[in-house]
Design brief:
Structural class: mainly beta
CATH architecture: 3-Layer(aba) Sandwich
Number of strands: 8
CATH class: Alpha Beta
Oligomer: single chain
Order of helices and strands: EHEEEEEEE
Strand order of the largest sheet: 1-2-4-3-8
Helix content: under 10%
CATH superfamily: Vaccinia Virus protein VP39
Number of helices: 1
Length: about 140
């Protein structure tokens, strides 16, 4: 595992080399700025790469900016987790599209990998049907 700290707007084609990119909670202190960073990542990340974002939910939004899943226009949102204990940040896990999404008449986005994401989902707990996370072994301590 390799970690790089940089101004993300200065990193372009190098992003295609990484399978997973973590975006810290305080990158982009308002919705517009955070959206600008996410769209930059969407432009340069490799198709199929994972983007993990820290977000906030409820009153915790006073401390950290909220990532609205609708900002993730070129990503398949795989999972959103809002903790209910002393952990502050929510986590949004998404995957860069392999192919563009298609919109159907039932107001659902059919994504390139076959999963369906309701377009009305806002800050909700959501798990896509074909998420690679469904096949991972998790340990709860």
């Amino acid at each position: 595992m390799v970690f790089h700290t940089a101004d993300i707007m200065d990193v372009t084609h190098e992003l295609k080399e990484y399978d997973v990119i973590f975006l810290a909670a305080l990158v982009g202190m308002d919705v517009d700025e955070k959206g600008k960073f996410i769209q930059h990542l969407a432009k340069y990340m490799a198709p199929g790469a994972i983007l993990m974002l820290k977000s906030a939910h409820g009153a915790r939004a006073f401390l950290y900016p909220v990532v609205d899943p609708r900002v993730l226009q070129r990503f398949d949102v795989l999972s959103i987790f809002h903790p209910d204990d002393d952990v502050i940040n929510s986590v949004v896990i998404s995957r860069r599209y392999l192919k563009p999404a298609n919109i159907d008449r039932n107001n659902r986005r059919h994504l390139a990998n076959g999963s369906i994401m309701p377009s009305s989902c806002k800050y909700c707990d959501f798990q896509a049907f074909n998420s690679p996370l469904n096949n991972m072994k998790m340990v709860d301590e």
